[in-house]
Design goal:
elongated; TPR_rpt; 79% helix; 244 residues; 9 helices; mainly alpha; Serine Threonine Protein Phosphatase 5, Tetratricopeptide repeat
Length: 244
Amino acid sequence: TNKFNRANYMVDYQKWEIMAKQEEQREQEELEALKAERHKAYIKSQEEKAKKLGHQHDPNQRMSTCGCSYTDPAKAAAANTDDMPLAERNLLKIEAIKAAKTDGNRLFKEGNLELCAKVYERGTLICNGAYGMTDAQTDQVQELELLLDLNMAQVRLRQQQWTEAISQCKMALSLDPQCVKAHFRIALAYQGMGEYDLANQALDKAMACAKLTEQKAMIAGKREQIALLTKKQLKQERQTLREM
């Protein structure tokens, strides 16, 4: 008779625990790499802008808003002039982020997805270039960055760029691990890739974070849809095997 071997069981359990920790570390390294890439892009954009404008700024020019790179690059650059107080510069940066979000939303509704993505990205770059803000301003910028990441993910989903959509959602989750929309949109990306098991895993995470009845109903509906697609996929695979 086979006897239960506790030692072997513990070894197997430890193996899976190590694998889980390695996966968690890999995801964290991936997030850090994405953040570093975004910050590098911000620094590069600022250097190019400084060369183009030659650090020139008309002190008599009245600026109502900073704007984003789509509406007025000169105004966005003005928020980074060396002679402007940091507090004022940060207020302009926040206005620039808001403008990027507003302009991006309009472009998305118009169907101009590529330009929309660039505008959203501009907003996230400004977020990552902000420093010396008050706690309230920092919270506001992080909230705006979260929305921009989610909007970028939506753009990539519409473009059927599944892996890019997942990357954007992971950026959002680095700001708010309980973000239902981020988990749900990861599920949509995996659905688009035909990775239904991974889609269900993302839906499980979304459901665990969901608090609103509407959110739970939406997730449940998507689960039913994934279940039907899974059955269809298995049926097609069996059919293919029979024909071989």
